[in-house]
Amino acid sequence: MSFESKYELVVGENDPAAVTVENLTGRAPVLVTCDHASNLIPPRLQSLGLDASQLERHIAYDIGALNLSKLIADKLDAPLIYSGYSRLIVDLNRHLSDPSSIPIVSEGTEIPGNHPLDDSQRQARIDELFWPYHNKFAEVLDGFQSRGVHPVILAIHTFTPTYHGIERPWHTGVMWDTDDRMALPFMDNLNKRGDLIVGDNQPYTAIDPLGYAFDVHARGRGLPHLFIEVRQDLVSDEVGVMRWATIINQALEPLLDNQHLYSTLEQA
């Protein structure tokens, strides 16, 4: 399939925003984030040459993650930041030097609208989608820290039940590396339930992370953080979202009562 873009700009004047922040004045010392909230492609990019069914797959967004993020943020009374467009245009959770930042192929599916791209087309995606999201992310964190608060970053993602034909047994997973302030007690609280298979750096690992938010906003600032993955079939409907928002909040809220948590890693 061939694909030709007639535009260098990505987002039109009347298109949805690249980034949305809700409940900015929330009282909780937590910022909930959802990097892969949407499967939307701006009309100017002509669905990247993909059909509608392909855009409903995990390759385009984290299914269920936005609804889960919204309910968690609401229960905590925390600010929420989320993306407005599909990761297929430019992945907000990848460093720009990473080849998968603008994927040519994703999970075996060719993305016609992502190749070839000239420098101006690539830069338009970065300027209009990547930097607005991460600049706003940094701005919200700066607002917390200007008030003397070192907030918890709570990143919500979802993963597929199978990958390359291999079933994934985990119900949820936590990604972490050297900062265990949140990850270990959170996983311990989940495991105490006795009804969950919890992945410790599964199905993805943060030991050698690909995540821009993890590297720059969380680890880069030394802030306490939780990067949570939930299996997408468990949050594909309203009942599942409500159940998992409750599970996550019940495991999380006791940790948030620890006032020693709210410091940078260097101060902890």
Structural key phrases:
alpha/beta, 6 helices, 268 residues
How many distinct folded domains? 1
Helix content: 25-40%
Question: What is the CATH-assigned architecture?
Answer: 3-Layer(aba) Sandwich
Structural class: alpha/beta
Approximate shape: globular
Describe this structure in words.
Helix content is 31%, strand content 16%. It is of the alpha/beta class and 268 residues long. It has one domain: Aminopeptidase (3-Layer(aba) Sandwich), CATH 3.40.630.40. The strands form three sheets. It has a seven-stranded mixed sheet with strand order 1-3-2-6-11-9-10, with helices on both faces.
Show the helix and strand layout.
Elements: E1 19-22, E2 30-34, H1 52-55, H2 65-76, E3 80-83, E4 105-106, E5 109-110, H3 119-146, E6 152-159, E7 162-163, E8 166-167, E9 172-175, H4 183-193, E10 198-200, H5 212-219, E11 225-231, H6 238-256
Parallel strand pairs: 2-3, 2-6, 6-11, 9-10
Antiparallel strand pairs: 1-3, 4-5, 7-8, 9-11
